[in-house]
């Protein structure tokens, strides 16, 4: 049984588990009254009609991707019978496990945040500082695991340019990068089906990248998560019957960031994550420009109608489906560019 066959079966099983789990999970969340609180200042006014839509649906792809990724890996190992005395075999498994655990821990942060929100019936979950402290701790643990799994390089790889060894500064740089990217994915979850679709595309690109550089063990997670996202979209495309919540978006954020870092291809990560990066950047630009104009002219002005930027397009007349398709295609284009650069500087 070849790697691609196992990967395909892993993705299909993850899709089935995620899609089928919604049959039980959505009514269960309704029963618990775990509905998403909607703040109209965080999105267009018409989003108010989504008030009460069940949240924490991210459990669909979290459960499906974790179970099927590990199962797929062990089936592949059983069929290929690798040399278990080879230290690289153990390192490969630790890298796969590290990404999964890292994503799960960030999903836990999101779950705590979601639970507090639905308990209080408002959008005030964990404080910003509480989230950052937890994210920094889990990020340090993940980077330490990568080091123990054989990735001791402290060079940033941009393909056309690889930095000298940065020592401790490598990890100091990566911590804010991880926090930015994981929260950027979280910001992308503002339109039905958007975050799941963009991440589906990102995982397909990462699967190809893993094959190019022979990081075969990671493909089980990227394919499992791609299948899980597709299964979740059965419930999340407009009109959404369920939201992923911070439980799902934080898991996806850590998954995207974790895969990029475990491959140690930083330019690839930037390009694959470009949609998320631009989403968060639009918020930063809007806030900075508002503060600057308020100080200079006495009134705050805006560049975008609303941020993150998907809301700008929404308020410009784009339907939610059009936004999902446009952003996903943009992600695929940047992802293909990432694969091209990976091949060019291999």
The best one-word shape is globular
Helicity level: over 70%
Number of helices: 12
Number of strands: 0
Whole-number total of structural domains: 1
Report the major sheet. none
Structural class by sheet pairing and helices? mainly alpha
Defining traits:
346 residues, mainly alpha, 72% helix, 0% strand
What do these coordinates show?
The protein is mainly alpha-helical and 346 residues long. It has one domain. 72% of the residues lie in helices and 0% in strands. It contains 12 helices and no strands. α1 packs parallel to α7 and α3 runs parallel beside α7. The longest helix is centred in the N-terminal third of the chain and has 34 residues. It starts with a helix and ends with a helix. The model has no long low-confidence stretch (mean pLDDT 91).
Please specify the SSE layout and strand pairing.
Elements: H1 3-32, H2 59-80, H3 87-120, H4 128-148, H5 168-188, H6 194-212, H7 216-236, H8 245-262, H9 266-272, H10 274-297, H11 309-315, H12 320-344
Helix pairs in contact: 1-2, 1-7, 2-3, 2-7, 3-4, 3-7, 3-8, 4-5, 5-8, 5-10, 6-7, 6-8, 6-12, 8-9, 9-12
What's a concise summary of this model?
This protein is an all-alpha fold and 346 residues long. Helix content is 72%, strand content 0%. The protein has one domain (3-344).
């Amino acid at each position: 049984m070849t790697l691609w066959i196992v990967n395909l079966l892993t993705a299909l099983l993850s899709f089935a588990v995620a899609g089928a789990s919604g049959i039980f999970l959505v009514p269960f969340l309704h029963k618990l009254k775990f509905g998403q609180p909607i703040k109209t200042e965080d999105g267009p006014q018409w989003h108010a009609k989504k008030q009460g839509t069940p949240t924490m649906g991210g459990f669909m792809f979290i459960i499906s991707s974790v179970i099927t990724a590990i199962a797929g890996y062990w089936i592949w190992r059983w069929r290929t019978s690798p040399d278990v005395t080879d230290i690289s075999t153990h390192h490969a498994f630790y890298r796969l496990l590290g990404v999964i655990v890292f994503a799960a821990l960030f999903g836990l942060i999101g779950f705590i945040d979601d639970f507090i929100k639905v308990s209080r019936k408002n959008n005030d979950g964990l404080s910003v500082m509480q989230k950052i402290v937890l994210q920094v701790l889990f990020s340090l643990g993940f980077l330490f695991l990568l080091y123990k799994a054989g990735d001791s390089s402290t060079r940033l790889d941009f393909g056309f340019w690889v930095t000298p060894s940065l020592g401790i500064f490598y990890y100091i740089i990566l911590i804010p990068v991880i926090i930015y990217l994981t929260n950027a994915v979280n910001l992308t979850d503002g339109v039905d089906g958007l975050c799941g679709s963009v991440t589906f595309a990102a995982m397909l690109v990462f699967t190809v990248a893993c094959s190019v550089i022979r990081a075969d063990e990671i493909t089980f997670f990227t394919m499992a998560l791609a299948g899980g996202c597709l299964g979740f979209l059965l419930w999340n495309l407009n009109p959404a019957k369920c939201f992923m919540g911070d439980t799902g978006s934080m898991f996806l954020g850590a998954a995207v960031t974790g895969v990029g870092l475990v491959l140690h291809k930083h330019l690839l990560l930037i390009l694959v994550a470009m949609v998320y990066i631009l989403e968060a950047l639009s918020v930063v630009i809007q806030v900075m420009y508002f503060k600057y104009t308020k100080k200079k002219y006495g009134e705050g002005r805006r560049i975008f109608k609303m941020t993150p930027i998907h809301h700008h397009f929404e308020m410009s007349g784009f339907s939610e489906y059009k936004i999902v398709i446009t952003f996903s295609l943009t992600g695929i284009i940047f992802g293909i560019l990432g694969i091209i650069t990976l091949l060019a500087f291999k």
